[in-house]
From TrEMBL:
Identification of the protein by name: Cytochrome c oxidase subunit 2
PANTHER family noted in UniProt: CYTOCHROME C OXIDASE SUBUNIT 2, CYTOCHROME C OXIDASE, SUBUNIT II
Domain annotation Cytochrome oxidase subunit II transmembrane region profile: ranges: 1-26
Main location group: mitochondrion
Lineage, broadest ranks: Eukaryota, Metazoa, Ecdysozoa, Arthropoda, Hexapoda
Length: 164
């Protein structure tokens, strides 16, 4: 039993080091704080003054022809592509799960706790997700939409949003 235990230790220590290094976030360009509420998300761009908004699902009777039912929101998250993004996730009421499958991001938002992860978008476009936690009767009606745009358009968006 001693030899297998030693082999497991030789496997475990490098793995723990790699897990620690994967969780370390180096020099993010943008920090986005996400707060889960029942039944919407709130976003705060921590690096800029006064950029915060709520994001609600668009009701079916208000959808345009090019919107997705149960997936489109009234306020999208605008982020620059080819940039390291840090996201801080918490919740105001119950446990939520901020999930964007196309980016490989899933992180839980827990009341009283601040979780963080990072991601990198290498192409422009729309990325859709939803709360993937059973956080109440209407938990599936908490969609997430990220719009990835070039950095110069992102700077213009920040300047326009700050002035309004």
């Amino acid at each position: 039993t001693i030899l297998p235990a030693i082999i497991l230790l030789f496997i475990a220590f490098p793995s723990l080091r790699l897990l620690y290094l994967l969780d370390e976030i180096n020099e993010p360009l943008i920090t986005l704080k996400t707060i889960g509420h029942q039944w919407y998300w709130s976003y705060e761009y921590s690096d800029f003054m006064n950029i915060e908004f709520d994001s609600y699902m668009i009701p079916t009777n208000e959808l345009n022809l090019n919107n997705f039912r149960l997936l489109d929101v009234d306020n999208r998250i605008i982020l620059p592509m080819n940039s390291q993004i840090r996201i801080l996730v918490t919740a105001a009421d119950v446990i939520h799960s901020w999930t964007i499958p196309a980016l490989g991001v899933k992180i839980d938002g827990t009341p009283g706790r601040l979780n963080q992860t990072n991601f990198f978008m290498n192409r422009p476009g729309l990325f859709y997700g939803q709360c993937s936690e059973i956080c109440g009767a209407n938990h599936s009606f908490m969609p997430i939409v990220i719009e990835s745009i070039p950095t110069n358009f992102f700077i213009k968006w920040v300047m326009n949003y700050s002035n309004s």
